[in-house]
Amino acid sequence: MFDLETKFNEFYKNKVSLFDEDISELRKKKRLNLDRLRDGLKEYNEENETDYKLVDDIEQGSVAMRTVIQLDENEYDIDVAIVFDKDNIPESTQKVKTIIEDALQRKCTQFKAAPEAKTNAVRLDYASGYHIDFAIYRRMENQLGEFEFEHCGSEWRERDPRAINKWFNTENDCSDKNIRKVIRLLKAFCKQNSGWLMPGGLILTILVAEKIRVEDRFDKTFYETVKAIKERLDTNKEVCNPTLNGNHSILYKKKDHQKIKNLHTRLEIRLKKLDVLFENDCDEAKAMAAWKEFFGHSFWGEDIQKSAFVQEFSLESKNERLLNLNADVLINNKVKIPLSDYKGKLPKGCKIFFSASPLVKYSHIEWVVNNTGDEAINDTYHKKTGRAVEENTLYRGRHTMTCKVYEGTRLIAQKVIPVNIK
């Protein structure tokens, strides 16, 4: 395999691994919002004559395991387990999430969207792209005087909030810290296209830990590990919690299984691009091009496809001075703001209102929607007409809305608006 370890390490250090100051900022936000949650619960208790109390909080996920990576849109996430005594909260998982949602909404009022209860956590979104997920747990003592834990999802499920962290640290130490490094790079691979529907960090972590192959060079370690993951997925696409006895799948939804299939397909395709690394006439230029095709990152060289897109975008927008175009987004059916003022990716379930005011004589206006990504497979392209149109944010990915102004059959002005949906 052609030796490009020096470049590989440079890519990992400067383009993938998140800097310490950024991790410190994430943890600062975690502490601040835990204080807000406690204050909100206190206020909720006073109004409802209840006595709900947090008995513990535990950092989880990529921040705890230090596998968080750099993202262009600053969409970093913080996972926090908040723990209650079992006899101190309702039995209904929906009721518990509603209480936490209510408590956060009381104290988190300056955010781009109100705190919202999801299936497995209550989410708090920052306008800058950060989000915090509060995963709710309950604990109870067993006959040995030890605590047992259950996670609040669609139902209560056995899960120790510290178990994954302990398991990961042990596995990572045994691999001479290589598991953490490979996970970060595999995440970078999965994040190269926002339209891809790919597995989350926990699934990738389990797969890497299961198939880690430590070699004498980091580039070889990464290659051999992802190759082993691909081969494993050839015949087995199930992923189970490594901290529980028995086969406890963490693929709870149909979408989770689709994400695994997508990972397998894309690894299969992109690994073939690396075959050149094993050819006798491989040189640095060929090796750089191969890793470019694998990671899709400009670090490895000029992005031809991106350059072509920029040229096309500029061509399509060259007559935009003849066209005034407005785009406003409605968030949660409550807040309406200019799309250009919205930071980060739009959530699903929003409405976008587009309107055009041509500055020249025209006969008709056409709007062309181009959707990308796995979720838009049955709706990749459609058209509408009129001075104003409405669209919904239905599909994750990078999309565009193109406004075309015609006089008869002649195109006289057009403009492209990018729409990124998470």
UniProtKB/TrEMBL annotation:
| Entry keyword Metal-binding | yes
Query: What protein am I looking at?
Result: Cyclic GMP-AMP synthase
Q: Which residues cross the membrane?
A: none
- Native organism: Bacillus paralicheniformis
Keyword Transmembrane tagged: no
Protein keywords? Antiviral defense, ATP-binding, Magnesium, Metal-binding, Nucleotide metabolism, Nucleotide-binding, Nucleotidyltransferase, Transferase
Domain Cyclic GMP-AMP synthase DncV-like nucleotidyltransferase as annotated: residue spans: 59-137
One Pfam family this chain carries?
DncV-like_NTFase
InterPro entries assigned to the protein according to its UniProt record, in alphabetical order = AGS_C, DncV-like_NTFase, NT_2-5OAS_ClassI-CCAase
| Lineage summary | Bacteria, Bacillati, Bacillota, Bacilli, Bacillales
Chemical reaction(s) catalysed = GTP + ATP = 3',3'-cGAMP + 2 diphosphate
Q: Which residues form the Adenylyl/Guanylyl and SMODS C-terminal sensor domain?
A: 313-422
